[in-house]
């Protein structure tokens, strides 16, 4: 035997010392979770989110102390919609709001009350200390005060809305959504695993490892947040990917161990079976995990704190899932195998028969699905590619948008208040802030230029009148920084809102402040500028990230299989599945026909983070299937099985595990479609669609058809497969000659039978095939 790989040596140690491996794993999980809890989570700050010109404007404004502060609006209205709040009751409520809010340390100022144009709503604006990012934390005392005021004035409807209230509501809703997603995912995973293994005990193994891997990763993520701050989405990604790949890797390893047990027929110990599985499945899991981690690392190139958080969570959970699969899983399999062996021995002692393990054979469904590729590979390949290209066509019309506040679910009370606020005060929809920095001696001319800018904006129909009670200009204490706020009555994700920003940046600013001589720094921020600049930033980074992904996918495939052809094929198939999934996403979410079906309000576009996220995660997960399926094909080919038969056998033998893994992944991803947050809906839908297409079209129709048409060229430039086939032919020829000579001496006329037996011995597992007919 040659030198064992690290994976095999680790599995062997784990198999020989199962209790040490199990206890060691539990200690590792406890240490990670305890260390993370002790260190705490380091959350991202406002500065970490700054991108583009809007980010530069926020930095200038913060330096001068004139930044946009988070504001809360307390709305007061009569219980009957037709009535107007007034009189002593309304005055008392306004005084109560003003007094109680001013007493809070989180509050910077409380503006005088403003009545809506129809007189039915009173609005009291409360400005908070600190940046927007802290608003969801600082708003809690304000919400408590509003609740007490509401109870003190039962004759009026009093509600609170604002950036902080909405952010807190979104966070609370996300937590409930994730709990709902887990409640759906776990039962489906249990059922799927029960169908695959037919054993309650075996079902518990993948879930146990997935859950403990997630727990360990959460602790590691808390530690990692002190290097790369967490944005709140990292934990979501750990749960999402952790359950998917944790079950996936364990499933593949378990399946291979059972195959080895069935093949051995009781002649090998559990330790030897686990070691045999580690040499194939263990290596595939490690290669697959590395591919996912390398692909996900491309997110760091996006230069965005949210993607940094997503990448960190994904890489950590995949790494931990791989470690659990190659360390503690062999120990668990040995203990379960020993239990099965003891039960079998007891049955034999009682004189009862022991049912042997049967090797899984592809069912009728899979044979039917593979039949087109086997019978007509060229036609199957052409039609399948055309179908996926047709699905991808809508992606050409994809419009990327930043999902602003208007897209959040109306199940959040603050969002219902937000709608009533905008109905009564439409000028509150969009706020642009123009920030100018110059020498203090030029403060007068800067203010004059900003007033001229304001006059131009007031004459532009895309802008609205000033919000009453808000100062026109705000200047820093050192008079070097001055800010002007302008309003527009349009939804934040609408074309009119974006156009108003374009008018401001491209026309009004250059015609006023832009004409000031000397060193004058100008920038515009606000919710719409932030979203617009973020989308532009993502569009600039997308080619870099995609190029890295393509290069790494190619390199990892070539490394795993020593084949340039497979590397190019893998890149092409990944692009095809991603493009078709994006086409379906645009078809469903960019229009409004599916709004009621999937419970969302269309942005008229796709969240700007979704395509980049899809490419990275899908490329990594597709490598799972690529490695699992092609490794079986290559393994057979290296044993001398002709490439055509190796392709059919490899795909058929891995069909059940690939299907099971796909069902688990699709369940996890599809559960996100039922969540309230639009961006999570889109991510869940596109990933579920991509995995379905990858598992049932790419791996069943396109991949086998392409490999059957390529034949031996699949393995170029490696000659290992060709040499393996040549060895089989030489062994068959030598065995045939020996059999023929023996038969000639005996004179019995049955030389062909002896040759057939030799061929079967040289061509294990395929005695019915004749090598000379295949080569």
Automatic annotation (TrEMBL):
Keyword Secreted carried by entry: no
Subcellular location: Cell membrane
InterPro entries per record: MMPL_dom (IPR004869), Mycobact_MmpL (IPR050545)
Chain residue ranges for the region called Disordered: 736-775
Pfam families, sorted: MMPL (PF03176)
Gene Ontology cellular-component terms listed: plasma membrane
Topological category with respect to the lipid bilayer: Multi-pass membrane protein
Transmembrane segments: 178-200, 207-228, 234-254, 284-303, 315-337, 542-561, 568-591, 597-621, 657-678, 684-710
Domain of life: Bacteria
Compositional bias per record (Basic and acidic residues), positions renumbered to this chain: 766-775
Residue span(s) of domain Membrane transport protein MMPL: 74-378, 410-721
Annotated keywords: Cell membrane, Membrane, Transmembrane, Transmembrane helix
Coiled-coil features, chain-numbered ranges: none
The protein, known as: MMPL family transporter
Organism: Streptomyces alfalfae
């Amino acid at each position: 035997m040659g030198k064992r790989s690290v994976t095999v040596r680790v599995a062997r140690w784990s198999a020989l010392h199962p209790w040490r491996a199990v206890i060691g794993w539990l200690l590792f999980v406890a240490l990670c979770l305890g260390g993370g809890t002790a260190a705490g989570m380091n959350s991202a700050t406002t500065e970490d989110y700054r991108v583009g010109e809007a980010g530069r404007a926020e930095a200038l404004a913060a330096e001068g102390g004139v930044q946009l502060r988070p504001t809360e609006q307390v709305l007061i209205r009569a219980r009957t919609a037709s009535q107007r709040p007034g009189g002593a009751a309304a005055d008392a409520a306004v005084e109560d709001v003003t007094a109680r809010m001013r007493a809070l340390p989180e509050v910077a100022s409380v503006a005088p009350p403003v009545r809506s144009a129809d007189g039915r709503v009173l609005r009291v604006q409360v400005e908070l200390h600190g940046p927007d990012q802290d608003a969801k934390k600082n708003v809690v005392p304000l919400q408590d005060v509003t609740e007490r005021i509401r109870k003190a004035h039962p004759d009026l409807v009093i509600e609170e809305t604002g950036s902080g209230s909405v952010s807190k509501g979104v966070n609370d809703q996300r937590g409930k959504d994730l709990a709902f997603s887990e409640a759906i995912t776990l039962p489906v995973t249990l059922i799927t695993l029960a169908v695959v293994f037919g054993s309650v005990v075996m079902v518990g193994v993948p879930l146990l490892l997935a859950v403990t891997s997630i727990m360990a990763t959460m602790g590691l993520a808390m530690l990692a947040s002190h290097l790369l701050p967490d944005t709140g989405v990292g934990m979501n990604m750990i749960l999402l990917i952790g359950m998917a790949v944790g079950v996936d890797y364990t499933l593949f390893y378990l399946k291979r161990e059972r195959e080895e047990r069935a093949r051995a027929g009781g002649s090998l110990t559990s330790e030897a079976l686990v070691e045999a599985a580690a040499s194939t499945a263990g290596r595939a899991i490690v290669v697959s995990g590395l591919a996912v981690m390398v692909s996900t690392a491309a997110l760091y190139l996006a230069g965005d704190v949210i993607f940094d958080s997503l990448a960190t969570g994904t890489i950590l959970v995949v790494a931990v899932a791989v470690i659990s699969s190659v360390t503690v899983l062999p120990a668990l399999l040995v203990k379960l195998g020993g239990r099965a062996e003891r039960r079998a021995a007891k049955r034999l002692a009682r004189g009862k028969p022991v049912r042997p393990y049967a090797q899984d054979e592809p069912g009728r469904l899979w044979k039917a699905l593979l039949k087109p590729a086997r019978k007509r590979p060229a036609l199957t390949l052409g039609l399948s590619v055309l179908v996926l290209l047709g699905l991808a066509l809508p992606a050409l019309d994809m419009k990327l948008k930043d999902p602003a506040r208007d897209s959040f679910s109306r199940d959040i009370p603050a969002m219902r208040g937000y709608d009533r606020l905008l109905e009564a005060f439409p000028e509150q929809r969009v706020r642009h802030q123009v920030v100018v920095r110059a020498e203090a001696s030029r403060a007068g001319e800067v203010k004059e230029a900003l007033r001229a800018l304001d006059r131009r904006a007031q004459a532009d129909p895309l802008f609205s009148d000033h919000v009453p009670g808000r100062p026109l200009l705000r200047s820093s204490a050192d008079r070097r920084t001055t800010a002007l706020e302008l309003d527009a009555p349009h939804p934040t994700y609408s074309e009119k809102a974006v156009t108003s920003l374009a008018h401001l940046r491209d026309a009004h600013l250059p015609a006023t402040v832009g004409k000031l001589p000397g060193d004058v720094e100008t920038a515009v921020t606000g919710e719409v500028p932030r979203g617009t600049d973020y989308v532009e930033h993502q569009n600039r980074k997308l080619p870099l990230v995609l190029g890295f992904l393509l290069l790494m996918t190619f390199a990892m495939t070539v490394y795993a299989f020593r084949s340039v052809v497979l590397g190019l094929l893998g890149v092409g198939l990944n692009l095809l599945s991603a493009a078709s999934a994006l086409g379906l996403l645009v078809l469903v979410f960019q229009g409004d026909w599916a709004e009621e079906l999937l419970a969302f309000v269309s942005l008229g576009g796709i969240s700007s983070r979704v395509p980049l996220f899809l490419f990275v995660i899908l490329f990594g997960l597709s490598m799972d299937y690529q490695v699992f399926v092609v490794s079986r094909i290559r393994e057979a080919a290296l044993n001398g099985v002709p490439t055509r038969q190796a392709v059919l056998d490899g795909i058929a033998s891995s069909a059940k595990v690939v299907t099971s893994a796909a069902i688990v992944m699709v369940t996890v991803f599809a559960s996100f479609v039922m969540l309230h947050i639009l961006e999570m809906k889109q991510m869940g839908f596109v990933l579920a669609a991509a995995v379905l297409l990858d598992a049932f079209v790419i791996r069943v129709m396109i991949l086998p058809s392409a490999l059957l048409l390529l034949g031996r060229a699949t393995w170029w430039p490696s000659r290992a497969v060709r040499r393996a086939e040549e060895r089989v032919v030489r062994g068959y020829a030598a065995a045939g000659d020996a059999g023929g000579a023996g038969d000639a001496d005996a004179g019995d006329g049955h030389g062909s039978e002896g040759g057939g037996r030799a061929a079967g011995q040289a061509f294990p597992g395929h005695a019915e095939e004749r090598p000379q007919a295949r080569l």
